[in-house]
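Morning F.,

Quick status update on the modeling queue. The single chain you submitted on Monday has been processed. Sequence for confirmation:
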Amino acid sequence: MNSYSLGKHKERAVKGAFVFCAAFSIIALLIITAFLFISGAPFIVKTGVFKFLFGTNWDTVSETPSYGIFPMILSSLYVTALSVLIGVTIGLFTAIALYKFLPKKAVPVIRQTVNLLAGIPSVIFGLFGLKIIVPFLRDYISPTGVGYGIFASSLVLGIMILPTIVSICLDSLESVPKEYYEGALALGATNEQATFKVMLPAAKSGVLAGVVLAVGRAIGETMAVIMVIGGSTDMPTSLFQSVRTLTANIAMGAMDLTGDSFTALISTGVVLFVFTLLLNVSFSLLKKEKKEKAEKKK
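Structure tokens below.
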């Protein structure tokens, strides 16, 4: 076999490996999707879509079980929104500070320190929240004397998503041509004006991508949330109240429940899957719409 034939065989092998990896990802997604909908969708229909989605009582141990997940849907939305607000605000300003306002020698150290947060297991964040954040909120901030709840979970998740936000936002800012910044300075803009009014808008697509990833991380986190949110299935009426998210509900009952109660957990997973899918599609459409408007202006 000559070198040309050997090169062809290597090229086909590499191409086959890439195709296999791509196909494996798609097949895995299809299998998970099929499992969720085949197992969970019929139960939602049997229980009643409106009753399942908007019912306010979740009781799997009584003689007549109830499977209403509306309190958990609201809790998931509140926790996700507040944690993303905290994480994106702190993370974006951290990225901007690393980009233009901190000494160059300090940037690699701070950036690496932030990135180390991504390597910490979520259970460690949960322990930190359980032993530090929850007692602090209970003793000094909570008007109800309860440290568990939406606010504690949001603080923990806000810290957890910081590495994602900082890394993506900083990379987006660094990918903007430096000529934009230099041109703004040449026109008389200050360092702050050039950064916030020129560089940041130019990097908004990357910032939006970071927000999407942060939302996905926040809404899908389970272990850390379970440890600081309390676990009650009551309707959320306060930031300082024991509640339960969709992911926490699935994890808390997955090892103990059987029969229809376990199927209800799978149905909860269907709702979470659809919600996450709609969220990602909405962000994609929003990004596409903004891109089209920008092209029309040009």
